[in-house]
Amino acid sequence: MGRDVLPAIIFAAPALGAAVAFVLSSRRRAAAAAGVAGVVTGGAAALGVAVPVLAGGVAPAAVVHGPLGPMNVTVDPLSAWFLALTGLAAVLFTPAGMAYTGAAAGGKRPGMLWIPFSTLFIGLCGLIIAHDAVLFTAAWETMSLATLFLLAFEDDRAEKRDAAWMYLMAGQLSFLPLFGLFAGASTAAGTSDFAAFTTALARPELRDWVLGAALIGFGTKLALAPLHVWIAPVYAALPGFAAALLSGAGVSAGLYGLMRVLTFVGTPSPAWAWVLIGSGLVSMLFGVLMALAERDMRRSLAYSSIENMGLVSVSLGLGLLGTVFNGPWLAVAGFAGALLHVFDHALFKPLLFLVADEVERAAGTTNLERTGGLMKRLPFMGAMAVVGCAAIAALPPLVGFGGEFLVYAAAFHGTLFLRFPYDIPLVGVIAGIGLAGGLVVGAFARWFGIAFLGTPRAPLAADSGPTPFSVRLSAAAAATAIVAGGAGFPWLLRAAALPAAQATGYPGVVVESVIHDLTGTLTQAGIVGGLTVVTAAALWALRGGLLAGRSVRTGPTWGCGYLAPTPRLQYTASSFSQPVTDLFRPLISGAVSVEMPSSLFPEPGRHATRYGDAVLTRFFVPVFFVFETGFGLLRRMQHGYLRWYVLYIIATLLALIAWKAG
Amino acid sequence: MELVARWIPLLTALIAAPLLRSVIDRTKARIAGRRGPPWLQPYRDLRKWFARGAVYSETTTWVFRVAPVVLPAAMVGALAVAPFADLPSLTDFSGDLVLFAYLLAVARFFVVIGALDTGSPFEGMGASREAWYGALVEPVLFVTLATLARETDAFSLYHLFHGLGPEKWAEAWPVLGLAVISLFAVFFVESARVPVDDPQTHLELTMIHEVMILDHSGPDLGLLEYAHMLKMWLLGTIIVGTVLPVQAGPYTGAPGWWPGAALAFGLTLAGMFALGVVVGLVESSLARMRLLKVPQFVLVAGAFAGLSLFLQIH
Fold this sequence. Notes:
The structure holds two protein chains of two kinds. By secondary structure, chain A is mainly alpha-helical. Chain B has eleven helices and one strand. Chain B is globular. The relative contact order of chain B is 0.17. Chains A and B meet through helix 14, helix 15, helix 16, helix 20 and strand 3 of A and strand 1, helix 3, helix 4, helix 5 and helix 9 of B.
């Protein structure tokens, strides 16, 4: 009885919470509390359903009766991994939503926020456990529209409206291939049940179309370059805890869709693996370059998500190479790497979004050029930010390192396992990941260092008060999960064994032996990481002991004798990344405008740098402009003359009668 | 007993790393016609720093105080997987070269944020340069290690260097030679020696590593300098391990193993000495490059690594 109730709670609790929040709309804190409680309960229920399946338990299944007939709902291992991820992200990060009331919410009533947020969570969980094409597409659209309404919550601000439009366009345009894919598959299989798709879609002539549609549709959700243009405005427009759920669990829905479709098509041609790897590498490099160029903290995080999802795509491609060329080690390492990296991402990216929210509260802006020295005002969030940035830079012994290690292991193994000429591109892949990884370390040293360290570059907000308890709770929980995940990474990898087995299609014994190898190496890596931490602690104690009883003074920054620095002289975010952004200027649409003083006497000069999304400005905007002007011609029909409209109606009726009669 | 053998590389590094710096300094001095500082001068410097008090900038936070502690710890972690003289490292596992590179990245991350913490434009400049050059050098290091790994069919540093014996050199010397050149380039960039960075100048145009640690004093400075010496030793063992095809053989526990191991150890120490002399010669004969040329330098190193990979295929 208990086992049957849990899956229902996943959906019922958030719905109830949202309803209560709507009813209690005027009592803001109570409404927020109801909304938070609903989603957190749903998330905990999701974890409760998913974790036993990952541990080897039986997959719960049910049948939902919908308007088009019975629809299958199952939590098989692949679904369980993503359900656990979504549930964990909801449990960890939704409590921060308690702080989003009153002035923080722009004076709006929370009820209108918690309905779309709860619906987003319900849609995410729904699409993960749906094993029926109708239910899947319905849940996907629910998730999309819920995000749209979340974005429209503060629609009195122009950039939020623009973000909502961008999301609508991207969401609906990417939904078209998905709809075609699932509708076509249902027709080919005769039923909309996923179980029938495996045989129906395994035909070679269908495979490429299926994968192409899936790559466009799910790739947009995953923000793979060049389909990434929606992510920066959208993440910048959402409140912290909503961006947290979307960046943690939302993008992983894209990976889930890709992996599910891959289970349908069996063994595709190796070209698709190279497409995944290639677009992944492009995403990685483009994402980190834009993250280095972006001055807004949230947009920088969004672009770094592109980099993370690029790594996931590379890992998926490597796994696919393994299945295509019948290399179990490569397949398992690749797929497990993708699963684990998207899990890591759901822990550290949302944490950084919460930090960005707090920076905005304390400094009044998220523009890196106008922040600085925030560690003194936000000591707790600053410490959490160090953990988050170190994790996203994949530094051992935190959780981010394990995911990246798996991708490297797969790539190194691939260079030996694959025959010529496939082994050469994999060395290029290693080099590409190495470069992107190195740049990410720099990007997040910049993201954290410019905002939190040094002195404020512009006056901070007057009386911002301490960080709210709910935000601290969420941040601390996430940081604990990051540290624990790093220490316990071998256990996380073992939990991914069943989903990896399902994704690769190899028998459990084979998968178990690969996972055993990998957990062995990761345990030893963890031991070395532990040695590093212990040594650091010992050195800290040693230094403390040495300095006790000696003169320890404070003074102004020495800076090699430059005793009059002003905050404006510090390195800014743009100057920190200038060597990189200068070198790659064409890729990031960089423009520099300089006005030098021209006369003998001192007069003002100006130097401005501007970066943009080259894909957006050079491809999507012109293409949409063409469509806009094209469809704009149709506006001639909307002239306002009633007589013409009546004429249109009569003409249409006559045409219909003629067609029916003839 | 095997456990004792496994501690030798780490302990050798901890004790002898400052000596590499004195070899380089004395070589440079000899070429300049001087006698140079005493052999034990780096130890005296370390003792001086550890005996002093400290001055901290008011702008700095705990991040500034954590950086000098994390750097030597990261180097110790990297030393735990780096073999010496074909003796096994403290631990070795498949893929430990990835951990090696990422522990260097840990050190880089913390020294960069420690530098940004001071709020000085000077340190920010060093942080920016270090972040960029470190990122550039990582793919070169990975490609070179990947080439060597493919050559020896091993993904663990110990097994990789164990496989680079005399017969491997005889059969694949072009590949290994080019890999050594690219490793030298990585060495010069990561340990901030001329022609990439001048450790003896304090001029704004020419500093990368030195500028980031300007505000550290006392034991902090001692820890950072020691970490830098360890890093130089680490990268040096990689080069010497590739160049010198010594073979101590896997630990057998028999008494007959120790003389062979001692010979390998002595040869590798001599190799490190020779490396110091070579670095000193290079530093004396080259001027520091313009900073804008450093990415080109790294690219050339990458080209060598790529060429060595290409030769390996054919």
